[in-house]
Each structure stands twice: as structure tokens, then as C-alpha cells.
Write a structure and sequence with these properties.
159 residues, Alpha-Beta Plaits, 6-stranded mixed sheet, 5 helices, 28% strand, binds flavin-adenine dinucleotide
């Protein structure tokens, strides 16, 4: 199926009992393996027991991947926040940029008057502010993230 419609999908979800902190490594490994062949890039944030993820890529691939992610038992109440056609990706360099720092989200939320991170409450404006902040944010130890074309990501977990 040909698909020229580059799209960005952002969703919120809530962790379940099937999720434990060590699962994030497994999820990022899946991203690193599965997303590049689908030409999917994006970011993932976990805060306050909520996931916030952005997927960018050909619309048909985003749809398929979202359906797989949707039925994952490690989270529930998966809710699309925004799906739009885009010209430029925010996270073109990342098969999945995992943002661990809660500081980025806190700063944006403070600016917009939101008390604590709850992605279900994001309006379109704040959602895009947040995505821009996550795009610009640099973790101190970025090699731990699922960066496109870099092999050092698993150094941290292999030890
Ligand atoms: P399998 O690993 O065999 O998984 C089979 C099914 O079991 C999966 O569909 C999943 O629902 C479930 N599952 C897997 N591991 C566990 C576990 N430890 N506990 C409970 N259920 C489990 N995958 C990507 O490829 N790209 C992404 O961008 C991506 N983002 C994700 C974001 C979140 C918040 C979560 C929770 C998962 C994400 N995943 C992502 C993982 C995705 O849901 C699938 O697990 C993954 O694609 C592998 O699925 P699979 O069917 O190939 O294989």
C-alpha cells in the first residue's frame, strides 16, 4: 500500500499492573527494532503513571503500530489526543526519543497553569508546546535512548 501522508499521532495512556520500571527497556528495544522499517519516529514520556507518546510516519504505518500498541497489556485507557498530517517531523532523528526528565513537562505545565502532569487534560495548544519542549530537550546521557542508527543504546542494560 502506498502512503504519502506523513502524519503525527499523539496519545495518552495509563500504566497497568503489568508494567514495571524494567519494562521501559523492553518497550524501547521494540521501538528500536520495529520503528525504523516502518519509517516511524517519535517520543515517549512516562510521568505520574501516565504514558504520553508521539508517533510520526506514513499514516498507514502509524495506524498499524497504534493498533498494536493500543492492545498492549502494560497500559490501559489509551486515548488519541491528536492525529494530524504534517510536513516536518519533530523527532526525525529518533526511532523513539525517551524523555526521562520530568522537569521539561513541569516547566511547560507551569507556564500553562496545569498543576501536575496528566496528558488526558492536554489541549491542542499545550500538547504542541510539550512536543516542542521534548524535541528540544537533551538528556545528560542521550546514548541511552533509542536513537536512529546508534548502537550504544543497550550499553546501560547489558551491564
Ligand atoms: P510480542 O513482544 O510477542 O508481544 C505480543 C503482545 O504481548 C504485544 O502486542 C503486547 O501487547 C504484549 N506484551 C509484550 N510484552 C508484554 C509484557 N511484558 N507484559 C504484558 N504484555 C506484553 N512497540 C513498537 O514497536 N514501537 C513503539 O513505538 C512502541 N511503543 C510503545 C509504547 C507503549 C506505551 C507501550 C506500552 C508499548 C509500546 N510498544 C511499541 C510495544 C508494543 O505494544 C508491542 O509490545 C511491540 O510492538 C511488540 O509486539 P509484538 O506483537 O511484535 O511481539
Amino acid at each position: 500500500m502506498t502512503d504519502l501522508h506523513l502524519s503525527r499521532l499523539s496519545y495518552a495512556s495509563t500504566i497497568t499492573e503489568a508494567y514495571s520500571p524494567m519494562e521501559i527497556g523492553n518497550i524501547l528495544e521494540d521501538c528500536r527494532t520495529n520503528n525504523p522499517p516502518l519509517d516511524v519516529t517519535g517520543m515517549l514520556f512516562l510521568g505520574n503513571g501516565y504514558f504520553f507518546q508521539c508517533l510520526e510516519g506514513p499514516r498507514s504505518h502509524i495506524n498499524k503500530l497504534y493498533m498494536d500498541i493500543y492492545s498492549d497489556a502494560r497500559h490501559k485507557d489509551v486515548q488519541i489526543l491528536e492525529l494530524k498530517e504534517i510536513n516536518i517531523r519533530y523527532f526525525s532523528e529518533w526511532s523513539m526519543k525517551y524523555v526521562r526528565s520530568t522537569h521539561v513537562a513541569d516547566t511547560v505545565l507551569k507556564e500553562t497553569g496545569m498543576r501536575s502532569f496528566n496528558p488526558y487534560e492536554l489541549d491542542g495548544y499545550t500538547l504542541n508546546l510539550l512536543l516542542e519542549a521534548f524535541r528540544n530537550h537533551q538528556e545528560h546521557d542521550e546514548p541511552h535512548q533509542a536513537e536512529k542508527g546508534k548502537s550504544s543504546f543497550w550499553g546501560m542494560f547489558k551491564k
